[in-house]
Design brief:
The chain has 214 residues and is of the alpha/beta class. It is built from five helices and ten strands.
Length: 214
């Protein structure tokens, strides 16, 4: 199966093409909101030597992370599905960070901490094993104090954007190639309109008043 994978949840955004479960090509840029998304996709396709018409599935890193970036990648996946009927799926970017570290040779109990702004962090704990990545604690929203405590009790700490705040932590970004490989290994394919960024805060809004007539 040929999968286009997109990971836009951090300032290092990437696109990759997975063929039969393995990365055939990957391109990344450091740019955040200024990412030339379509050019990045084209570069990944060219690197893999795969025509866009041959893509059978699109996998998206759903965060937590940059809400704008994740929405942009979801929009690309939805457009691909509408245009070509391609299957789509979403993958946890926190899990992708852990899996990226595992590919780099890390093993053991590992915490992932992602800056959630407002002096809060998205946190998750995984066991990096020879066979793969096992979830120990699901992604949740933590206070700064809770994140510091977690970093103190878990041997390995990974973060794409807040590693300097935790002594001994490693800077690891989620990679599109890893997102695609995780999707190929067993993700559920869904309708694009059902994909949503991982956003753990309760949504609050003030309803606009009814129109006034004069």
């Amino acid at each position: 199966m040929r999968i286009l994978a997109l990971e836009f949840s951090t300032d290092r955004r990437s696109a990759a093409v997975i063929v039969d479960g393995a990365a055939a090509g990957e391109e990344s840029v450091q740019g955040g909101r200024d990412t030339p998304a379509l050019r990045l996709v084209e570069a990944a396709l060219e690197s893999a030597g795969v025509e866009r018409e041959l893509i059978e599935g699109v996998a998206v890193g759903l965060g937590p992370g940059s809400y704008t970036g994740i929405r942009a990648s979801i929009a690309l996946a939805e457009g691909w599905q509408l245009a070509r009927g391609t299957r789509v799926t979403g993958v946890s970017s926190a899990r992708a960070i852990a899996a990226t570290a595992r590919q780099e040779g890390l093993r053991g109990l590992t915490a992932v901490l992602i800056d959630a702004q407002r002096n809060e962090f998205y946190s998750a704990v995984y066991e990096l094993e020879e066979a793969g990545v096992r979830e120990v604690e699901a992604v949740r929203l933590s206070t700064a104090e809770e994140a510091t405590g977690l970093a103190g009790r878990v041997p390995v700490v990974l973060s794409p954007d807040a590693w300097e705040r935790f002594p001994g932590a490693r800077c690891v970004f989620p990679r599109a190639a890893v997102v695609g490989e995780l999707a190929a290994a067993g993700s559920q394919w869904v309708e694009g309109e059902t994909l949503e960024p991982v956003y753990l805060r309760e949504t609050t809004f003030v309803k606009a008043p009814a129109p006034r007539r004069f």
